[in-house]
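Z., the sequence and structure:
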Amino acid sequence: MEVLDTVVIGAGIAGLSAAHQLIKGGFKTRVLEANSEPGGRVRTIVDNGFRMDLGFQVFLTAYPEAIRQLDYSKLEFCPFQSGAMVRHGNAFTRISDPFRDPTALVSTLMSDVAPLGDKIKIAYLRQKLMNTSVDEIFRRQEKSISDALLNDYGFSPKIIDRFFRPFFGGITLDASLSGSARMFDFVFKMMSEGNVAIPKLGMGEISKQLAAKLPSETIRFNSRVSDIEPDRTSFEGQNVLTVVLEDKSKVLARSVVIATEGTEAGRLCPSIEKPKTRAVHCLYFSHDIVPSTEPLLFLNGNLESENSVSGVVNNLAILTNCSPFLAPRGKHLYSVTVLEDSECSESLDKVVKKQLIAWFGPEYDKLEHLKTMKIERALPDQSPPWLDMPRKAIKIEDAGRTLYVCGDHRDNASINGAMVSGRRAAEQILKDLKVTVSLA
């Protein structure tokens, strides 16, 4: 039986990044993917002309590792405008970044979303983080986002509740803002230095581009791994691992990379520390009309309200305002995010539709529900102290096996973090095994 240099388990962002680096280094590599297509959680589902990502996702073009690994010109990124429309009480108020959009300076300063002092502090924080390196950010003392906003940056409870809670709550899938302040600083820095965008044809195009960099025979789809066994066979004095698939077939390799999300990684290797995870509901709707043609995010600034104006919606994006290619001609694609802890007594799509009617008017009674997705393990929960060690070990000794692991649970919960971890795992294997490439 053929002995490969490396088997990568999982064709998500981390696994594809690892495989590309290994193949560049001369390693005979196979990727085993449980699904029928690459991407893991970064995939786009096509249904009746609508292109719906697996949950609402955006891409930050300033990601340093992504700049290194992706061809941006082929992805044709479509940016959101800076700022957001914030729902406070029974009306929307626009808040923008005056550095990006000087025309919005007056309206931003005059808005009642937060006191003027908070808006000045946002501008100051933006400049401060742009002058801080990513390494510095991840060396800072770890604490919660809410603690940093209130005590370190001096923001008022008003702007935390009305803007930061729905905005960064939507990013971390946690409206309590108990997540990592390091991640807040990193994301804020990336947003300040680049665009918040989506590829023209959806986020899945990122995964497809990474997969296309590999030889066509590299990825084996519909191949879920059940076990990784140490094998008594040796290869040039090195132990060989046996990867056992659910269909009982086996693949032999000198090294194995577990490139799955954290829970699945822990199943394959109990020595891997499993993070808690965050779930989320994403609902997609279609309509012939839009309340605004600008590519802006709509935020629910009433989340802390105790009256009926709050509702379950955390944020809403009209994706076709960014890219009209995500829906059939004449149709608009709405993406609505509802966080895991939201409760309602009737079907979620009906509750969301009622809230959007209250937001935008009776004509939204004609809003068409397309799909509801519940992503059970959408993100690893990186609340302190999870990132006290910002880069976790990617080489694991377990039950007589030497294994390698990568994924956003090993670096940080971002596409950039997944890419970095994949590259780190590949570099470690290249160093450890020192393969000699045959010129025959």
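The chain is about 30% helix and 25% strand. The longest helix spans residues 415-433.

Let me know what you think.
H.
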